[in-house]
Design a protein that fits this description.
Blueprint lengths: L3 E6 L6 H15 L3 E5 L4 H11 L3 E4 L10 E4 L3 E12 L2 E2 L9 E2 L2 E10 L6 E7 L8 H24 L4 E7 L9 H5 L17 E5 L5 E5 L7 E5 L1
Parallel strand pairs: 1-2, 9-10
Antiparallel strand pairs: 1-13, 2-4, 3-4, 5-8, 6-7, 8-9, 10-11, 12-13
Length: 231
């Protein structure tokens, strides 16, 4: 049984009309079952996303450090078993160079455990937006490594508590270096092939315990193309 998963970074200051257009293009072009969004900075933007997805979808947007990375899913296929957040890092001074401010805010990875009407075992989705420009200096590199390690710990947690679940770890991970993501591979996740989502760079990821059957992008009005995976 096929599952279509999408992840889309909708740039922080996109006008809402472009947000709506980008989400419609994603919905109509991919018909995803599960969708992760990044850089969702406010209630109005999340409301615009929800409206563009339409009544066939529902979702979860937590507050605080998890607010920018909500998760949506098809309401008639999935029922929520558990919602939560996983702490990735505290606010950190990473220096002035590279993307983002000098002090990057704390990060959390929200997750949702879903009962899937089409599968025997649960489906678990995790969304994360990791530290930008980790190659520029030691502080950025260390922070990114800490966040990846924490995601790997979350994968191990799910392996212990939901050993037969289908895992999807999605998001803007801000690296093209697979060695940086090796802790996730060691935790049992398949990264799939590199598909450029940011110019020539594969910064966005959909890692899973299921085999990838195909990956592609859908251009939008953000600085990242939406990444789609078939599983």
């Amino acid at each position: 049984m096929t599952t279509i998963v999408a992840t889309a970074n909708l740039q922080a200051h996109m006008p809402l009309v472009k947000v709506a257009g980008s989400v419609l293009k994603l919905r109509n072009g991919a018909h995803p079952d599960l969708v992760c969004f990044q850089e969702v900075g406010g209630v109005r933007k999340w409301a615009t996303i929800r409206a563009a997805l339409g009544h066939h979808y529902t979702g979860h947007r937590d507050g605080g450090e998890a607010a920018e990375v909500p998760i949506a899913w098809r309401r008639h296929r999935y029922k929520v078993e558990r919602l939560g957040d996983w702490h990735l890092s505290d606010p950190t001074n990473v220096g002035a160079r590279g993307a983002g401010p000098r002090v990057l805010r704390g990060k959390k990875a929200p997750f949702v455990v879903l009962d899937d009407a089409r599968r025997v075992h649960p489906t678990i989705v995790v969304n994360a937006h990791l530290a930008p420009s980790p190659w520029l200096n030691k502080d950025r590199s260390n922070l990114h490594h800490e966040q990846v390690s924490r995601l790997a710990e979350l994968a191990d947690f799910f392996d212990q508590h939901y050993p037969k679940a289908d895992l999807f770890f999605c998001g803007d991970w801000n690296t093209t270096d697979r060695w940086r993501l090796m802790p996730l591979v060691q935790a049992g996740l398949n990264l799939g092939k590199d598909v450029p989502t940011h110019g020539k760079h594969a910064l966005d990821r959909i890692a899973s315990t299921l085999p990838h059957k195909g990956m592609w992008t859908i251009p939008n009005d953000s600085d990242h193309d939406a990444l789609i995976g078939r599983f």
